[in-house]
Specification:
168 residues; 2 domains; 7 helices
Length: 168
């Protein structure tokens, strides 16, 4: 956030947060009004839509219109815990970034041998991709992330995934 706003971004007049459940048409209308205005203190108006999967049916078309034609001085960030619940038309107009919380990894997999190996491999791959962003290091990191994504599938064979992890 500090890239778009000053350090105290939570109190910036250019920061607008929508965290309703459900996100209503009035929330989106307020966002659209703010998006049409010039930033006050910084270079951008930054909008945070928390839990975009809570978007109501009435609000979706209005938000879609804003996402199709955003202002050049407008940054819209949407979060979700369930990407599958986001409408495909909305999802197609957003870039997707996945973030993992280290403590969540430890909580989910800390006691499991495979989970511990996956956690170490993920940390190693991430460090390699950050320190030396070669195609090989980035590819290793992406493959390790793919394993992490499918590990929660109850039909996934952990033994085979572990063997694949060792090959990376």
């Amino acid at each position: 956030m500090s890239r778009f706003l000053e350090k105290n971004w939570r109190h910036s007049p250019d920061f607008f947060k929508v965290a309703s459940d459900p996100i209503t048409i009035d929330d989106v209308r307020a966002l659209k009004i703010r998006a049409s205005q010039s930033p006050v203190a910084g270079l951008y108006n930054v909008f945070l839509i928390e839990s975009i999967e809570n978007l109501s049916r009435d609000a979706a078309p209005a938000l879609l219109k804003l996402l199709e034609e955003p202002s050049q001085r407008c940054v819209i960030i949407a979060t979700t815990a369930n990407a599958r619940a986001v409408l495909p038309t909305i999802k197609s107009r957003l870039s997707t970034f996945r973030f993992w919380n280290k403590s969540a990894l430890e909580k989910d997999y800390g006691k499991d041998d495979f989970g511990a190996a996956l956690q170490k491999s993920l940390a190693r791959a991430e460090a390699g991709a950050r320190t030396s962003p070669t195609q090989d290091n980035i590819s290793k990191f992406e493959k390790t992330l793919e394993i992490y994504k499918i590990i929660n599938d109850p039909t996934a064979n952990k033994r085979l995934l572990g063997e694949y992890l060792n090959l990376i």
